[in-house]
Amino acid sequence: MWRDPFRIMLQQSRLFGCIFMVGWAMVTTARAEVTLPVTGLPVGNCEAVSQEIPKCLGQGAGGLSVEQIEKCIPSSGLPACLPALSEVQGWSPEQAEAILNKLFSSGYQIVDGKSLAALGSLVIGLSPTSLQSIPAQVILDAVKVPGFAKQLRNAPPALKAAFVEKSASRSSHVPTAQLASLVKKLQRSRQKRNTGCPPDKIITKEVLENTLMPLEYTDNELRLCLSPSMVADNLHNFSDYPFTLEQLAVLKEKLDEGYPDGYPDSIVRNLGSMLEIMTPEEVKKWRFNSAETLAALLDSSPDDKMASALIQQYASSGGQFDATALNALGAGYICLLTQGQLNMIKEDAIKLAKPPKLDECPQSIKDSLYAKVKRAYSDQHNQFPEYYNSIKPYLGGAPGEDLRALRKNNVNMDIDTFMGLWKGAVMELTPTDVKLLLGKNLGDLKAHQSDPFIRDWIISQKQSELDTLGLGLTGGRPEGYIVLPRDPKTNTSRAPRAIIAHLLHVFPACLLILSLNSILS
Questions:
Q1: Which CATH number is 196's domain given?
Q2: What's the distance, CA 115 to chain centroid?
Q3: Which end of the chain is more exposed for a tag (fewer CB within 10 A), N or C?
């Protein structure tokens, strides 16, 4: 592509002329690179400069005044200059804000973490209005971009606080753990080692009630300035603060100092995110028997090992498995109950509690809970559909005889409930049983015929009986065939089951022929 040499020379002369007017921006020596103020740009007569000018200036662009930025740098060229300008260190908030105002007027938008992180050192120029328009998740994604967290870490405290406050707002719904990760990345990388609490870090009531406290104190400063009583008295607030794991460890140190023999109920119920750094062994020293406390602990979503320790300690301390406790367990922890703990559940509590999620529970848990719920609603067993709706969440533990009893009451069981039944009980049901049990939902059996649960039931039925359903189900047993249960421990024959069944089918005929031959001879 031919390019006009005269035009190129003109652009180069303007570029070097502008750089000359701006002055020396960088002085490079053998030992260091020093940034000097940029002066001498005739602002009053300055026409818009090429976008190549800011790129060429590099670090020296930091010497441009706000007036020079506003009058001499065109908005249209800023997006192309952003990679260079975002790496300049030493912008004042006013300079950065002037550049960002022109950048946004050019149509640049912050739509994701990358576009926010692309601002680099210019981020200090974000106005409160611009910051409020940025979703919290965008901020969290931007901090993950290499280098951007460092830019924020060097930003003024007020800006860092604004970032955390925006992310911590109730409308953002950002988990405390993610906020703690943001706080950790914004903290000072080098911490001064003090032997006593610094005078400017004395903790007052206002500090204790400030959600941004984790951002303003390093873990060492917390260790020096917090007392055990401060932690205990304000734990209900601290549980929602975005403390880092290192800061939480300091809070735990203070609690252990104040309660060397184990935490009482008042402390345990307010642990919140601190539960993450506790161990099952430490739980054994706690003293709590309040169902509300158990609910608060399980609301922190501990892993199964920790949850089992909490449930065991609750029961050992005299806690009752009432409706409040069952509701807390029903969100995903009821499958962890031991048989002894299951025996502690009263039927009345089951009637008051919300239906639990039992899909992933062992069959023994389902069996025990079904037996309890059946007794709890025994006075309503003739009241349909009320009785059926009450026991429906627990039917995974129902035996075959109870399912056959339900078929008489037009319950119209949905296919999801049917597929959640105990397989051993379903295998006892005939096609007629299933037809009456599913009622108007019988057609869903055809749609799910390839599911292993349904398929195993189909192949255990006589094909002639499956045909009576009118669904076109195939794969059942032909008449006269016997399906033998396959037991890998006792079945040593390699012959296919169909061949064995066929031999058993023709054996009586062979025996009859042999007998007739014997008589005739």
A1: 1.20.970.40
A2: 25
A3: N
Q: Using N-to-C axis directions, what is the helix angle for 304-316 and 291-298, rounded to 10°?
A: 170
Q: Give CA–CA dist 92/95, Å, rounded.
A: 5
CA dihedral over 377, 381, 385, 391, signed as positive or negative: positive
Of residues 44 and 299, more confidence is placed in: 299
Ranking 24-38, 358-372, 391-405 by mean pLDDT, the lowest is 24-38
Closest CA to 73 of 54, 59, 60, 86: 54
Question: In this structure, is residue 240 part of a structural domain?
Answer: yes
Instruction: Copy the structure tokens of residue 479.
Output: 């008449």
**Cα–Cα distance measured from residue 270 to residue 435, given in angstroms and rounded to the nearest whole number:** 53
Tokens (6 digits) for 423: 């397989």
**Residue 243 DSSP code:** -
What range does the domain containing 486 cover? Answer: 482-521
Does 409 lie in the same domain as 427?
Answer: yes
Return d(Cα 327, Cα 354) in angstroms, integer. Answer: 6
3-state secondary structure 192-232: CCCCCCCHHHCCCHHHHCCCCHHHHCCHHHHHHHCCHHHHH
pLDDT higher than threshold 60 for residue 200 = yes
Q: What H or E segment, with its residue span, contains residue 27?
A: strand 26-28
Strand partners, 462: 477
Gap between the Cα atoms of 163 and 186, Å rounded:
10
242-292, pLDDT tens digit by residue?
Answer: 898 899 999 999 999 999 999 999 999 999 989 999 999 999 999 999 999
pLDDT digits (tens, 9 = 90+) for 16-61: 344 333 433 333 323 333 343 443 344 344 444 455 555 555 555 5
